[in-house]
Amino acid sequence: MKGPTEEEFKESIKELSEYKHRLEKELFTISQKLKMPQEKIKSIINSHKELNQIKTILSKLNNRKDITT
C-alpha cells in the first residue's frame, strides 16, 4: 500500500491546524464571557485534553512529512 503524498500531508496538517485554532478561539471566547482571568484561560487552553492530542498528532504528521520528503 502506498503511503500518503506530500500534498496529502500538507492538507491534513492545514485542516487539523485550522481546527486547533478554532477550538482555541472558542475556549478563549467562552472563558472571556465567564470573566476568567487571563492566566486561568491560558491554563485551561494548555491543559485541554483534545488540544493536546491535536498538538501531538500535528507533531507526528510534520515529522512523517519531513521523513517522506
Describe this structure in words.
With 69 residues, this protein is mostly helical. 84% of the residues lie in helices and 0% in strands. The chain has helices spanning 6-33, 38-47, 49-68. Helix 1 packs antiparallel against helix 3 (49-68). The protein starts with 5 loop residues before the first helix and ends with a helix. The relative contact order is 0.18.
Structural class estimated from helices and strands: mainly alpha
**N→C terminal distance:** 18 Å
Radius of gyration, rounded? 15 Å
Question: What fraction, in percent, of the residue positions are helical?
Answer: over 70%
**What does the overall shape look like?**
elongated
- Describe the main β-sheet briefly: none
Low-confidence stretches: none
How many helices? The count is 3
Strand residues, percent = under 5%
H/E topology pattern: HHH
Strand runs, count: 0
Mean pLDDT: 92
Question: What's the short version?
Answer:
The chain has 69 residues and is mainly α. The chain is 84% helix and 0% strand.
Topology:
Layout: H1 6-33, H2 38-47, H3 49-68
Helix pairs in contact: 1-2, 1-3
Distinctive features:
69 residues; 3 helices; mainly alpha; single chain
